[in-house]
Amino acid sequence: RKEVEQDPGPFNVPEGATVAFNCTYSNSASQSFFWYRQDCRKEPKLLMSVYSSGNEDGRFTAQLNRASQYISLLIRDSKLSDSATYLCVVEDSNYQLIWGAGTKLIIKP
Amino acid sequence: GAGVSQTPSNKVTEKGKYVELRCDPISGHTALYWYRQSLGQGPEFLIYFQGTGAADDSGLPNDRFFAVRPEGSVSTLKIQRTERGDSAVYLCASSLTGRTNEQFFGPGTRLTVL
What we know:
The complex is a heterodimer.
Chain A: E1 4-6, E2 11-14, E3 19-25, E4 32-38, E5 44-50, E6 55-57, E7 60-65, E8 70-75, E9 84-91, E10 97-99, E11 103-108
Parallel strand pairs in A: 2-11
Antiparallel strand pairs in A: 1-3, 3-8, 4-5, 4-9, 6-7, 7-8, 9-10, 9-11
Chain B: E1 5-7, E2 10-13, E3 19-24, E4 31-37, E5 44-50, E6 53-56, E7 65-68, E8 75-79, E9 88-95, E10 104-105, E11 109-113
Parallel strand pairs in B: 2-11
Antiparallel strand pairs in B: 1-3, 3-8, 4-5, 4-9, 5-6, 7-8, 9-10, 9-11
């Protein structure tokens, strides 16, 4: 079993729709959680950290469920520019980042 | 300001050859990381430097891989006797002081071993 698992997609979503991604992790000792965005043939960039209380940044909302060991990302009112691969990242007890394989999102006009 | 830079952007080599990949971190960042990303996968941790020393090299797959950062700034990832399975994008990242800070990634070096 992979340490961090994501649905690879692709998710094909019409512009303006709401889309949600889930991610599960296996190590209950994981301490920090992040969503990164990676455009095609580009480097990953931090989208947002994920806090236990849940957090929101504009159209993006991240949730963490420690009991069930999953993380979610919700994108509201999706834009064409949201098309990218979204990577779920978990920091282990040694502060090492463990990455999911990513979920590809395609927003269609 | 300048971000993380990596050279070359692309490297094609033959099986068995030696390659060096260079990373220039953001000025003032003491922490530097190397990752490897294969197609359709997330980045895989290789090594972490704090200053000049390798603080965590647990991700290096075998002894053909080695990295240095002699002056605490530029780092070089060295791969000996390259194999076709080494083909991937090698990403470098840096952060201000350590692993609890946000990592900023370079554009990567795409290595192809024929």
